[in-house]
Amino acid sequence: MTYILSIITFLFFIIFLAGLGKKILSYFIKDFHSSAEEFAFSYAVGFGIFGYSILFLGILGGLFPLSVILVVTTAVFLSWNEIKIIVTNIYFFTRAFGKKLPRYLSKTLFLNLIICIAGISIIACFLGSMAPSYSNDSMVYHLTDAKYFAETGKIGLIANNSTNALWPYLIEMYFTIAILLKLLPLAGLFHFSMALATLCGIYGFSKRFFREECARLSSCIFFLTPLVIIESGQTYVDLGVSLYGSLGIFSFIIWFQNKDIKWAFIAGIMSGLAMSVKYFAMIIPLIIGIYIFTGIFFAKKNTRIKIFKSFLIFITGTFLFSAVWYLRQYLIFKNPFFPFFVDIFGSSGLDTETLKQFSEKGIRDAMGAGAGLKDLILLPWRITMFPYKFGGEELGPLFLSILPAVLFLKKIEKNVKIISGIIFVYICLWFSQYQHLRFIIPIVPLLCVIAGYLLDKIINEDTASQCGINGKLIKISNDAGIEPRQDGNPNLASSIVTRTSRKKFFSNTIIKFLICAEFIYLCLFCVRHNWSAIKTVIGIETIDEYLSNNERSFEIAKYINKNFSKHDKILVIDEGHTFFIDIPNKREEYYWLYTGYNKKYQTAKDIISYFKKEGFTHILYTVSPDIGSLSELFNKNRLAILMKGSEFKEKYFKFIFEITPTSKNSNGVKYFLYAFI
């Protein structure tokens, strides 16, 4: 029943947010090229605006189900006409779908097969997104911080338990809504919706500038990319960066074509919303801003002022739709990018070296495969063949097999050159900063556009072009004095044409076969990747079984929730996965970071007394050869270190429970529960 309610609520939000965005955009843009393009931009804007309303509710301490319903009701009232239009269009579309189905399909069997393969992948990702998430970042902060916001009704700094709570958290606002409504599958669906909107954006952009077949190929390729498949099944936020980053770039290219200042503003809005999802997304407005600004110097005198105005309006849009996240970081920590860049902005009184570890310095240094020129040249091969060196996610073989075809094209359209330039600049910046494959996802839609364009060029050359070639051959034969034979048999020119046509037919058939085989493989990858989650959603496997098999902290959390009361308070040592623990808890590593208790108290007795005064009644202690946050860094006078001594534990604690999880991500971990004596 939870899944059905989540789907119904999700469909409501899709229509509601698209209507809200359509209402807002009606004041700026009226020249959308297609319904898909309009939906992508409308949903993106509506999602962003409503996400901000949730943020401001939380900042004011009024984030409760009733207040959220009130905001939704108000927004529905203001955008009622647009919502009615969307609902009406959906009604007539579904009513006439069967009759007009041939119109929606391609004229070629190959493309229809690709559409069906991609459709299976989309359905698998949709079902898989509803299963409970167990990704590391979700367990540490995406869902864990959202749970805190929902429980307290406040959005802000989480005392002594997170360094991330003030980050750009636009997607987490929707995770908070899902938890607030007690519909956890809705969190995964919200993230999945980012991929759906991106697909529409790819289709709309490709249809605007290229052929219909190119648009279909490009959008299908997106949902057959392993990185997208993996992301859509977890409550990450990267698909949000993919949506806003790609729409920002698409808006910029539309502006580049027509120099309409409104599209520069839309590009700024999309860039600002991308920065509202993730710090790393600031690369997008940086690239677009440089493109626009340098255009001032290469433009004609009569257009320079207009381009300069576009640059200013772009910067304004970016600032307006991102500043709040960075401003509150600055007001609290004097660092708009906390806990990053502490050497520049300072550490707000916290230990600098410790903060560097919390900002993934160790992970960053271990990621990637070198930073030299040779490494940059070999990057496409290494990303495809050795994804474990770049964080474990996969980009898949598709782009490596298709994109080199660009070298054999005699004529490349201007927009393809612009997109290729943006991809190259982004890759270089990504390569020099943080070689985690997940952070490459903002340009995946651009890669899909180029891949679709190339496939369309290679496979679907139109008949007129072929006739032109044949005509040239016949003209050459006549100029050479070769006359057609009167007995009706083909002359030399027609023989050449026939051999050329046969050669082209067989080569195209082989290419289509190989592409279909590759797409089928990627579709099977998608189904296999999501199969365990799908079994849970359709009821073959229970949620408890699913989480026990996949999330190491679930079983110990289940025990704690059953045997502890809300009056207890648990200090969690060397484990960041605390989302499923419903009893009040704090993580020791954050307590250590914010309070510096190990410097204030020098004896074990004083440290124990301190935590008792803080209200802690129990300790969840984790032992693992691979997991353990920062236990042995900088100062050994920490509870995390003291717990390693058996005499210390016997003196100050009472042993309660022990469990060794068998989940896929357990990595040899063991959990021990102790009570303070």
Note down, in words, how this protein is organized.
- This protein is mainly alpha-helical and 677 residues long.
- The protein contains 33 helices and five strands.
- The two termini are 44 Å apart.
- One of its GO terms (cellular component) is plasma membrane.
- The chain crosses the membrane at residues 6-28, 40-60, 66-87, 108-131, 173-202, 236-256, 277-299, 305-327, 416-433, 439-455, 509-531.
- This is Dolichyl-phosphate-mannose-protein mannosyltransferase protein.
- It holds the Pfam family Glyco_transf_22.
Give a short overview:
The protein is mainly α and 677 residues long. The chain folds into 2 domains: 2-455, no CATH class; 551-676, Rossmann fold (3-Layer(aba) Sandwich), CATH 3.40.50.
How helix-rich are the residues, as a percent range? 55-70%
Proportion of residues in β-strands = under 5%
Shape: globular
Find the count of extended strands (DSSP E, 2+ residues).
5
Count of structural domains? 2
Query: How would you characterize the largest beta sheet?
Result: 5 strands, mixed
Poorly predicted sequence stretches spanning 5 or more consecutive residues: 462-488, 627-631
Number of helices: 33
Taking strands numbered 1, 2, ... along the chain, how are they ordered across the largest sheet?
2-1-3-5-4
Q: What structural category arises from helix and sheet content?
A: mainly alpha
- Rounded to the nearest angstrom, the distance between the terminal CA atoms is 44 Å
Organism: Candidatus Omnitrophus magneticus
Keywords: Cell membrane, Endoplasmic reticulum, Glycosyltransferase, Membrane, Transferase, Transmembrane, Transmembrane helix
Domain ArnT-like N-terminal: 205-332
Subcellular location: Cell membrane; Endoplasmic reticulum membrane
